[in-house]
């Protein structure tokens, strides 16, 4: 009986550990681009724009290993970080429409890197279910052939299938719920870091944001414009234009 109880506990602990296959998500602060890490830098009227195209390592550092899915496909999406260092006496605004690129929406980017049920979990789930069915088949064969099996072995054979058949679907549901939570965390983090509509850069401050561009819409050369309406007496809105040329 002790052996059967030990086996039960081992099986139960093994199943309970499967949801750990889902990695938790911890947001990482988006720091301004350092001068020596920028792929582009230009200063106009005391306002500096720095641009960095994320590598796979940058993606993983910011969003975890799931972010590899953004770059490793024919429909890749490139994250770009923009940092504006405003040392002028004016307040400036970066508007989404003033970036000369067709930007990908945050929701579509989030759906690309959201967490799915991991292959290792599916392998374990299918394996345990298969083990349960195999065990039942062994019991049927023993009964059909009138094979004498010790009570201890028979008790073990009868005990394991219910654990796997009932426990495996329950744990798949538990992992799906955890996946949903992680996916929401990723979407929320993306929304906070990405340029949704506009980014406000007060005088003598630094602001940074992310934009996402699909591979088919990407180019290394594009323009970024900042606008300011500090001077209400002027008829036209002040504008600073940067012509970005990213390093290869």
Structural write-up:
Helices cover 42% and strands 24% of the residues. With 248 residues, it is of the alpha+beta class. It folds into two domains: 2-15 and 116-187, no CATH class; 35-114 and 195-223, Immunoglobulin-like (Sandwich), CATH 2.60.40. The strands form two sheets. A four-stranded antiparallel beta sheet has the order 1-2-3-6, with no helix packed on it. A four-stranded antiparallel beta sheet has the order 5-4-7-8, with no helix packed on it. Strand 1 and strand 2 form a beta hairpin. The model is unreliable at 1-13 (pLDDT under 50).
Gyration radius from CA atoms, angstroms: 28 Å
What's the CATH topology label of the largest domain?
Immunoglobulin-like
Low-confidence stretches: 1-13
3D shape: elongated
- Which architecture name of the largest domain does CATH use? Sandwich
Overall mean confidence score, pLDDT: 77
Count of individual beta strands: 8
Strand order of the largest sheet: 1-2-3-6
Largest sheet: 4 strands, antiparallel
Percent of sequence in beta strands: 15-25%
Number of discrete domains: 2
- Helix proportion range: 40-55%
Q: Helix tally?
A: 6
């Amino acid at each position: 009986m002790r052996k059967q109880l030990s086996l039960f506990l081992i099986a139960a602990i093994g199943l309970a550990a499967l949801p750990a296959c889902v990695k938790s998500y911890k947001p990482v602060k988006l720091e301004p681009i350092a001068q020596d890490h920028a792929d582009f830098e230009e200063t106009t009227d005391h306002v500096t724009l720095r641009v960095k195209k994320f590598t796979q390592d940058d993606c993983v550092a910011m969003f975890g290993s799931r972010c590899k899915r953004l770059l490793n496909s024919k429909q890749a999406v490139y994250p770009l970080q923009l940092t504006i260092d405003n040392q002028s006496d004016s307040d400036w605004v970066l508007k989404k429409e003033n970036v000369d690129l067709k930007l990908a929406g945050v929701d579509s980017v989030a759906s690309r890197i959201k967490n799915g049920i991991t292959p290792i979990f599916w392998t374990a789930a299918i394996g345990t279910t298969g083990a349960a069915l195999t065990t039942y088949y062994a019991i049927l064969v023993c009964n059909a052939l009138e094979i004498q099996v010790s009570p201890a072995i028979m008790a073990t054979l009868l005990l394991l299938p219910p654990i796997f058949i009932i426990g495996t679907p329950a744990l798949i549901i538990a992992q799906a719920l955890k996946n949903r939570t992680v996916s929401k965390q990723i979407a929320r983090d993306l929304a906070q870091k990405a340029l949704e509509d506009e980014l406000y850069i007060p005088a003598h401050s630094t602001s940074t944001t992310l934009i996402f561009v699909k591979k088919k819409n990407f180019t290394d050369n594009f323009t970024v414009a900042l606008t300011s309406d500090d001077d209400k007496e002027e008829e036209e809105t002040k504008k600073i234009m940067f012509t970005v040329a990213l390093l290869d």
